[in-house]
Design goal:
The protein is an alpha+beta fold. It contains two helices and four strands. The chain is globular, with a radius of gyration of 15 Å. The relative contact order is 0.25.
Length: 100
């Protein structure tokens, strides 16, 4: 299933900046950044539960927020892209350059 994860972390303190980096890192482990604080994550229910647990253990619920949008398995019909930052297909072929 495709889950869109958005977050807003209060970065007015050093601990907030650290939380922001940790949240982004966890999201990168499960998906692709599509905007500054927005990730598309193609996960199964077990992976989503693990990611949700990790994120919610990082954020401060009094100052930060997380939002989960469930686009399901038929997500391609619900996503449209326009503008900068090329779109990608997480189910497509990934080409890795061995000699960057």
């Amino acid at each position: 299933m495709m889950v869109l994860i958005t977050y807003d972390v209060n970065v007015t303190t050093d601990t907030g900046k650290k939380r922001l980096r940790r949240v982004a890192k966890q999201c990168q482990n499960f998906g692709q950044r599509v905007q500054n604080s927005v990730f598309e994550c193609l996960v199964d229910p077990t992976q989503f539960a693990e990611l949700k647990h990790r994120l919610e253990s990082i954020v401060d619920a009094k100052t930060d927020s997380l939002r989960y949008y469930f686009l399901g398995s038929n997500w391609k019909r619900h996503v449209e892209h326009y503008g900068a930052k090329e779109t990608y297909d997480p189910e497509g072929v990934i080409i890795v350059d061995a000699n960057p």
